[in-house]
UniProtKB/TrEMBL annotation:
Sequence ranges assigned to domain NAD-dependent epimerase/dehydratase in this UniProt record: 4-214
NCBIfam families from the UniProt entry: yfcH
Family: Belongs to the NAD(P)-dependent epimerase/dehydratase family. SDR39U1 subfamily.
Lineage of the organism: Bacteria, Bacillati, Bacillota, Bacilli, Bacillales
Name of the protein described by the UniProt record: TIGR01777 family protein
Domain DUF1731 as annotated: residue spans: 243-291
Gene3D superfamilies in UniProt: NAD(P)-binding Rossmann-like Domain
Pfam families the UniProt entry points to: DUF1731, Epimerase
Amino acid sequence: MKKVVLAGGTGFVGQDFTVRFKKLGYDVLVISRQSGHIAWEDRTAIIEALEGAEMLINLAGKSVNCRYTDENRKIIMDSRTETTNILGEAVLACVHPPELWINSSTATIYRHAEDRPMTEQDGEIGSGFSVEVAKAWEQAFFGFKLPSTRQIALRIAIVLGEGGVMEPLTNLVRFGLGGAQGAGTQKFSWIHMEDLFRMVIFVQEHPELEGVYNASSPHPVTNRELMASLRKQMGARIGLPSPRWMLELGAIFIRTETELVLKSRWVIPDRIEKAGFTFTYASLDKALADLLKSK
Protein backbone atom coordinates (compact mmCIF):
# COMPACT_ATOMS: atom_id res chain seq x y z
CA MET A 1 0.00 0.00 0.00
CA LYS A 2 1.24 3.51 -0.80
CA LYS A 3 2.34 5.32 2.33
CA VAL A 4 2.63 8.98 3.31
CA VAL A 5 3.77 10.36 6.66
CA LEU A 6 2.24 13.59 7.97
CA ALA A 7 4.26 15.15 10.78
CA GLY A 8 2.10 17.51 12.79
CA GLY A 9 -0.82 15.98 10.94
CA THR A 10 -3.52 16.73 13.52
CA GLY A 11 -3.77 20.44 12.70
CA PHE A 12 -5.98 22.34 10.26
CA VAL A 13 -4.06 21.39 7.11
CA GLY A 14 -3.04 17.94 8.32
CA GLN A 15 -6.58 16.78 9.00
CA ASP A 16 -7.68 17.88 5.55
CA PHE A 17 -4.67 16.24 3.87
CA THR A 18 -5.33 12.98 5.74
CA VAL A 19 -8.78 12.71 4.18
CA ARG A 20 -7.50 13.59 0.71
CA PHE A 21 -4.60 11.13 0.80
CA LYS A 22 -6.86 8.31 2.01
CA LYS A 23 -9.19 8.98 -0.92
CA LEU A 24 -6.17 8.47 -3.19
CA GLY A 25 -5.52 5.07 -1.60
CA TYR A 26 -2.67 6.03 0.74
CA ASP A 27 -1.93 4.63 4.15
CA VAL A 28 -1.52 7.82 6.20
CA LEU A 29 0.73 7.76 9.28
CA VAL A 30 0.63 10.77 11.60
CA ILE A 31 3.33 12.01 13.96
CA SER A 32 1.80 14.16 16.68
CA ARG A 33 1.88 15.16 20.33
CA GLN A 34 -1.74 14.00 20.53
CA SER A 35 -2.41 10.49 21.75
CA GLY A 36 -3.28 7.79 19.24
CA HIS A 37 -0.49 8.77 16.85
CA ILE A 38 3.25 8.26 16.56
CA ALA A 39 4.93 10.23 19.34
CA TRP A 40 7.74 12.68 18.63
CA GLU A 41 9.77 11.01 21.38
CA ASP A 42 9.54 7.58 19.73
CA ARG A 43 12.48 7.75 17.32
CA THR A 44 12.23 4.04 16.42
CA ALA A 45 8.55 4.36 15.45
CA ILE A 46 9.27 7.47 13.36
CA ILE A 47 12.01 5.65 11.43
CA GLU A 48 9.72 2.66 10.88
CA ALA A 49 6.97 4.97 9.59
CA LEU A 50 9.38 6.68 7.17
CA GLU A 51 10.79 3.41 5.80
CA GLY A 52 9.47 2.98 2.28
CA ALA A 53 7.17 6.01 2.44
CA GLU A 54 6.59 7.87 -0.82
CA MET A 55 6.45 11.19 0.94
CA LEU A 56 7.06 12.94 4.25
CA ILE A 57 5.14 16.17 4.79
CA ASN A 58 6.07 18.21 7.85
CA LEU A 59 3.33 20.54 9.09
CA ALA A 60 4.44 20.66 12.74
CA GLY A 61 4.58 23.89 14.71
CA LYS A 62 2.70 25.75 17.42
CA SER A 63 0.13 28.17 16.05
CA VAL A 64 1.34 31.77 15.78
CA ASN A 65 -2.16 32.92 16.71
CA CYS A 66 -1.10 33.88 20.23
CA ARG A 67 0.63 36.68 22.13
CA TYR A 68 4.35 36.71 21.51
CA THR A 69 5.43 36.31 25.13
CA ASP A 70 8.94 35.02 25.81
CA GLU A 71 7.50 31.59 26.58
CA ASN A 72 5.40 31.46 23.43
CA ARG A 73 8.28 32.70 21.27
CA LYS A 74 10.43 29.82 22.48
CA ILE A 75 7.67 27.26 21.90
CA ILE A 76 6.91 28.64 18.42
CA MET A 77 10.58 28.43 17.43
CA ASP A 78 11.39 25.08 19.04
CA SER A 79 8.23 23.39 17.77
CA ARG A 80 9.46 24.02 14.23
CA THR A 81 13.22 23.60 14.39
CA GLU A 82 13.36 20.68 16.83
CA THR A 83 10.74 18.62 14.99
CA THR A 84 12.49 19.29 11.68
CA ASN A 85 15.77 18.09 13.19
CA ILE A 86 14.10 14.93 14.53
CA LEU A 87 12.72 14.17 11.08
CA GLY A 88 16.01 14.86 9.31
CA GLU A 89 17.88 12.48 11.60
CA ALA A 90 15.19 9.83 11.12
CA VAL A 91 15.35 10.13 7.33
CA LEU A 92 19.13 9.67 7.48
CA ALA A 93 18.63 6.54 9.57
CA CYS A 94 16.28 4.92 7.02
CA VAL A 95 17.40 2.09 4.75
CA HIS A 96 14.70 3.11 2.25
CA PRO A 97 14.01 6.78 3.02
CA PRO A 98 11.09 8.76 1.57
CA GLU A 99 11.64 9.90 -2.00
CA LEU A 100 10.31 13.36 -1.17
CA TRP A 101 10.28 15.49 1.98
CA ILE A 102 8.05 18.56 1.86
CA ASN A 103 8.57 20.93 4.78
CA SER A 104 6.24 23.77 5.67
CA SER A 105 7.58 27.27 5.67
CA THR A 106 5.69 30.54 5.61
CA ALA A 107 5.06 33.45 3.26
CA THR A 108 5.65 35.66 6.30
CA ILE A 109 9.38 35.27 5.64
CA TYR A 110 9.19 38.20 3.20
CA ARG A 111 9.10 41.84 4.31
CA HIS A 112 5.97 43.95 4.65
CA ALA A 113 5.33 44.81 0.99
CA GLU A 114 2.86 47.26 -0.48
CA ASP A 115 5.17 48.43 -3.28
CA ARG A 116 5.81 45.22 -5.25
CA PRO A 117 5.23 41.46 -5.14
CA MET A 118 7.71 39.02 -3.61
CA THR A 119 8.88 36.04 -5.70
CA GLU A 120 11.27 33.30 -4.65
CA GLN A 121 14.11 34.89 -6.62
CA ASP A 122 13.45 38.60 -6.10
CA GLY A 123 11.63 38.63 -2.78
CA GLU A 124 13.25 40.47 0.12
CA ILE A 125 13.47 38.65 3.44
CA GLY A 126 11.97 40.74 6.22
CA SER A 127 12.87 41.29 9.87
CA GLY A 128 11.28 40.62 13.22
CA PHE A 129 10.36 37.56 15.26
CA SER A 130 8.14 35.80 12.69
CA VAL A 131 10.80 36.18 10.01
CA GLU A 132 13.51 34.83 12.32
CA VAL A 133 11.35 31.77 12.97
CA ALA A 134 10.86 31.21 9.24
CA LYS A 135 14.57 31.59 8.52
CA ALA A 136 15.57 29.19 11.30
CA TRP A 137 12.94 26.69 10.11
CA GLU A 138 14.30 26.66 6.55
CA GLN A 139 17.90 26.55 7.76
CA ALA A 140 17.13 23.49 9.89
CA PHE A 141 15.45 21.82 6.91
CA PHE A 142 18.06 22.54 4.25
CA GLY A 143 20.84 21.86 6.76
CA PHE A 144 20.27 18.16 6.05
CA LYS A 145 22.00 16.76 2.97
CA LEU A 146 19.93 13.76 1.98
CA PRO A 147 21.30 11.74 -0.96
CA SER A 148 18.10 9.78 -1.62
CA THR A 149 15.42 12.29 -0.60
CA ARG A 150 14.35 15.35 -2.57
CA GLN A 151 13.63 18.41 -0.40
CA ILE A 152 11.03 21.11 -1.01
CA ALA A 153 10.06 23.95 1.33
CA LEU A 154 6.64 25.46 0.69
CA ARG A 155 6.32 29.07 1.82
CA ILE A 156 2.62 28.79 2.51
CA ALA A 157 0.32 31.81 2.50
CA ILE A 158 -2.94 31.99 4.49
CA VAL A 159 -4.79 28.74 3.77
CA LEU A 160 -8.51 29.06 3.07
CA GLY A 161 -10.50 25.93 3.87
CA GLU A 162 -13.18 24.49 6.14
CA GLY A 163 -12.20 26.12 9.43
CA GLY A 164 -8.97 27.96 10.05
CA VAL A 165 -8.98 31.69 9.34
CA MET A 166 -12.37 31.47 7.60
CA GLU A 167 -14.17 31.19 10.94
CA PRO A 168 -13.07 34.51 12.48
CA LEU A 169 -13.36 36.30 9.13
CA THR A 170 -16.92 35.14 8.49
CA ASN A 171 -17.87 35.90 12.10
CA LEU A 172 -16.69 39.49 11.65
CA VAL A 173 -18.97 39.85 8.62
CA ARG A 174 -21.94 38.25 10.44
CA PHE A 175 -21.63 40.71 13.32
CA GLY A 176 -21.38 43.73 11.03
CA LEU A 177 -17.62 44.24 11.46
CA GLY A 178 -16.63 43.11 7.99
CA GLY A 179 -14.99 46.35 6.90
CA ALA A 180 -11.34 47.05 6.22
CA GLN A 181 -8.89 46.29 9.01
CA GLY A 182 -6.31 48.95 9.70
CA ALA A 183 -5.48 50.93 6.56
CA GLY A 184 -7.00 48.17 4.39
CA THR A 185 -4.21 48.58 1.83
CA GLN A 186 -2.11 45.71 3.20
CA LYS A 187 -1.92 42.74 0.82
CA PHE A 188 -3.53 39.44 1.69
CA SER A 189 -1.82 36.44 0.09
CA TRP A 190 -3.83 33.26 0.31
CA ILE A 191 -4.28 29.77 -1.16
CA HIS A 192 -7.30 27.47 -1.33
CA MET A 193 -6.77 24.19 0.54
CA GLU A 194 -7.48 22.19 -2.60
CA ASP A 195 -4.78 24.03 -4.54
CA LEU A 196 -2.31 23.51 -1.71
CA PHE A 197 -2.94 19.77 -1.85
CA ARG A 198 -2.76 19.77 -5.65
CA MET A 199 0.58 21.59 -5.39
CA VAL A 200 1.90 18.82 -3.13
CA ILE A 201 0.87 16.18 -5.67
CA PHE A 202 2.34 18.30 -8.49
CA VAL A 203 5.79 18.53 -6.93
CA GLN A 204 5.66 14.82 -6.16
CA GLU A 205 5.00 14.07 -9.83
CA HIS A 206 7.82 16.36 -11.03
CA PRO A 207 11.10 14.93 -9.71
CA GLU A 208 13.10 17.78 -11.24
CA LEU A 209 11.65 20.25 -8.74
CA GLU A 210 13.45 21.06 -5.49
CA GLY A 211 14.18 23.98 -3.19
CA VAL A 212 11.84 26.80 -2.14
CA TYR A 213 8.39 27.45 -3.63
CA ASN A 214 5.77 30.06 -2.74
CA ALA A 215 2.45 28.34 -2.06
CA SER A 216 0.02 31.16 -2.73
CA SER A 217 -2.58 32.20 -5.26
CA PRO A 218 -1.24 34.25 -8.20
CA HIS A 219 -3.84 36.91 -7.37
CA PRO A 220 -3.42 38.34 -3.85
CA VAL A 221 -5.82 41.09 -2.84
CA THR A 222 -5.80 44.00 -0.42
CA ASN A 223 -7.42 43.59 2.97
CA ARG A 224 -10.16 45.95 1.83
CA GLU A 225 -10.83 43.76 -1.23
CA LEU A 226 -10.81 40.63 0.94
CA MET A 227 -13.48 41.96 3.28
CA ALA A 228 -15.56 43.33 0.39
CA SER A 229 -15.49 39.93 -1.30
CA LEU A 230 -16.54 38.23 1.92
CA ARG A 231 -19.44 40.65 2.40
CA LYS A 232 -20.54 40.09 -1.19
CA GLN A 233 -20.45 36.30 -0.87
CA MET A 234 -22.31 36.40 2.45
CA GLY A 235 -24.89 38.95 1.38
CA ALA A 236 -23.85 41.55 3.96
CA ARG A 237 -24.57 45.12 2.88
CA ILE A 238 -22.38 46.91 5.39
CA GLY A 239 -19.27 46.19 7.38
CA LEU A 240 -17.81 48.54 9.91
CA PRO A 241 -14.04 49.07 9.60
CA SER A 242 -11.61 48.22 12.40
CA PRO A 243 -8.99 50.97 12.87
CA ARG A 244 -5.53 49.98 14.06
CA TRP A 245 -6.10 51.10 17.66
CA MET A 246 -9.16 48.90 17.90
CA LEU A 247 -7.24 45.93 16.52
CA GLU A 248 -4.42 46.49 19.00
CA LEU A 249 -6.89 46.58 21.89
CA GLY A 250 -8.82 43.57 20.63
CA ALA A 251 -5.64 41.56 20.12
CA ILE A 252 -4.83 41.90 23.82
CA PHE A 253 -8.24 40.58 24.81
CA ILE A 254 -8.22 37.58 22.43
CA ARG A 255 -4.51 36.97 23.07
CA THR A 256 -3.12 37.30 19.56
CA GLU A 257 -0.92 39.69 17.57
CA THR A 258 -2.06 42.35 15.08
CA GLU A 259 0.78 41.35 12.74
CA LEU A 260 -1.43 38.48 11.56
CA VAL A 261 -3.84 41.05 10.09
CA LEU A 262 -1.74 44.16 9.46
CA LYS A 263 1.39 42.78 7.80
CA SER A 264 1.24 43.18 4.02
CA ARG A 265 2.05 39.80 2.46
CA TRP A 266 2.36 40.29 -1.29
CA VAL A 267 3.58 36.89 -2.46
CA ILE A 268 3.52 35.46 -6.00
CA PRO A 269 3.96 31.72 -6.86
CA ASP A 270 6.48 32.41 -9.61
CA ARG A 271 8.48 29.16 -9.58
CA ILE A 272 5.56 26.72 -9.40
CA GLU A 273 3.69 28.48 -12.23
CA LYS A 274 6.80 28.46 -14.41
CA ALA A 275 7.01 24.72 -13.73
CA GLY A 276 3.52 24.33 -15.23
CA PHE A 277 1.22 24.29 -12.20
CA THR A 278 -2.23 25.82 -12.73
CA PHE A 279 -4.61 26.89 -9.98
CA THR A 280 -8.19 25.67 -9.69
CA TYR A 281 -8.94 28.64 -7.44
CA ALA A 282 -6.81 31.50 -8.72
CA SER A 283 -9.31 34.25 -7.84
CA LEU A 284 -10.51 35.02 -4.33
CA ASP A 285 -14.16 35.34 -5.40
CA LYS A 286 -14.10 31.80 -6.82
CA ALA A 287 -12.36 30.42 -3.73
CA LEU A 288 -14.82 32.07 -1.32
CA ALA A 289 -17.81 31.02 -3.41
CA ASP A 290 -16.66 27.41 -3.11
CA LEU A 291 -15.96 27.56 0.61
CA LEU A 292 -19.16 29.42 1.51
CA LYS A 293 -21.57 27.54 -0.75
CA SER A 294 -22.86 25.39 2.13
CA LYS A 295 -23.01 28.22 4.67
